[in-house]
Amino acid sequence: MIDIQTDSRKIKKGDTFVALKGISSNGDDYIEDAIKNGASKVVVEKGSYDVETIVVPDTREYLNEYLSSHYNKILGEMIIIGVTGTNGKTTDCYLINEALNKLGCKCAYIGTIGFYIDKTRICPLPNTSPDACDLYDLIIRAYDAGCKAVALEVSSHGLYLGRIKTIPFDYAGFTNLTHAHLELHGTKEEYAKAKQMLFRMLKDDGKAFINYDDEWKDTFILDGNDNYTYGFNGGDYHITNYKVSNFETEFTYTYKGETNTIKTELIGKYNVSNAMMPIMILDKMGYSKEDIRKVMSEVEPPDGRMNMIKYKTNRIIIDYAHTPDGVKNAMEAVNEAKEGMKGNLYTIFTCRGRRDRTMRPIMAKLAIEGSKIGIMTGDHQYDEDPRQIIDDAVGKLDAKNYEVIWNRRDAVRRGIDLLKDEDILLILGKGYEKYNIINGEKVPVDDIGTIEEYLKELDKITTS
Q: How many helices, marked H, and strands, marked E, lie in the chain?
């Protein structure tokens, strides 16, 4: 456990508290709480307190220097893998984690769906990229548990706020950059610059993997880095073919003139791209082509990423997609995978509060145009009026084949009611999450639990 904190609630007796200024809070407001909780030292930019007080020009710089000087020796003994991008981070890092563990290299995962050691979820996390103190603490916990590697999702927020500034990376990956998080960064150029920071944090012998198909790829191919590209349109690791059938995928790629074939339970073109990140990293770590082929046939997607439930002749698929690119990819994957099924596609979709409002009509149009019926429902609305979110999404659409059912449980049940023979219900936006945030409160919601509960009810009705 580390002995320095930026959250007064996590202070143990004898710890140092660093007062950071954040986007929505000021660490100065919590100094007295930290002292009450046992802090023996505080680091501030101004003021004097009843415990040892260190005044510095920049508390974040102090924190980064402290963490680096005290703990980077431990981090240097581990293989640290970071993946950034609008979409794909969770899948890539989870697959890397799962593959390495299956190959005997004990690995941890830190990201959107929590903190995992091997396949065991240790705890949820408040952010994709945790606070710097929490991040160091998690990596050291993984080290103490015998982990040799850690796969870390790296968000633009985490980079922009300096949470990851002193982490030494062995491998860095870029998946894609699409329309998202402009409420923080303002423009896609600034969004890209934030993500680019990861590629300036590689060790001297570190390696960078960049999606050749993405229009922003040149931003991440930096002079001085050992760069490798991958993609359908070219790249060092060139994906030359893929096919999806019966909700499984087979694809081929070439590297240095050698052709390799991979079979996986991941479905869809975008998941072929996701699969390449662990393949390249395993290759550069020295694993054999046969080991890579075998392990990639065994890995499963993380919770909430294209998870499937069979119901009679139908399929119900749950996915976390909540950006335009995520919705587009999920729908394309399902349409490819359902080849041979005769039924319709129904889609439940969401638009989150406190997000770039221009994304909402794009997502609604994608979900509705691609479905027999689209159902818009609730998600994290935060403090936004649902009527505003709904109007932004569907207020100017000409389509008639949609419904708005804001209560998520009711929307899921309605979607199941629509299913007939060989239909597919695609439920987007929540994935693994089990709550909505409404006016500061976490309101329980569980798509998978709702599905299982309702299917049991329907089974009782049909057998009674």
A: 15, 23
